[in-house]
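ok, trying the design again with the full structure, not the truncated one.
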């Protein structure tokens, strides 16, 4: 079975584990990654009003048609997808200070690994600015 990882340009690599409560969103993400001929790279930025969240654009195939799925409050290490076609993004929650919202994005995966290391990456992006994130499929 394939593994998916996210790597940050200034350090930090994390495995992604899919949440069975969001099968359509996870499948759209996997299809997106499977169709990339090179690792996908995007600028990862701090979520301005979301608390300890960073995000990057991700044009998932049929992302808008996924609709709402597993819209639960995220925790540190959660990975969510915003299916709004005008703002298609993957969000990674790097800490526990997460804004309260009426509607959350599709929580489809989580980070596997050291949450202190994830917190360090998120803090770095928040304090020093965006950095390149690379998504890669490992067979």
């Amino acid at each position: 079975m394939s593994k998916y990882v996210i790597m940050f340009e200034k350090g930090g690599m994390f495995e992604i584990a899919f949440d069975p409560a969001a099968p359509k969103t996870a499948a759209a993400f996997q299809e997106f990654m499977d169709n990339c001929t090179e690792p996908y790279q995007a600028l990862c930025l701090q979520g301005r009003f979301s608390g300890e969240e960073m995000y990057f654009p991700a044009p998932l195939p049929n992302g808008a048609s996924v609709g709402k799925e597993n819209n639960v409050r995220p925790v540190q290490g959660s990975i969510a997808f915003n299916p709004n076609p005008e703002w298609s993004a993957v969000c990674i929650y790097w800490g526990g200070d997460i804004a309260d919202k009426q509607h959350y994005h599709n929580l489809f995966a989580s980070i596997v690994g050291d949450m202190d290391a994830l917190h360090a990456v998120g803090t770095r992006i928040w304090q020093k600015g965006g950095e390149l994130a690379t998504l890669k499929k490992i067979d």
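Keeping the full-length input from now on. The radius of gyration is 14 Å.
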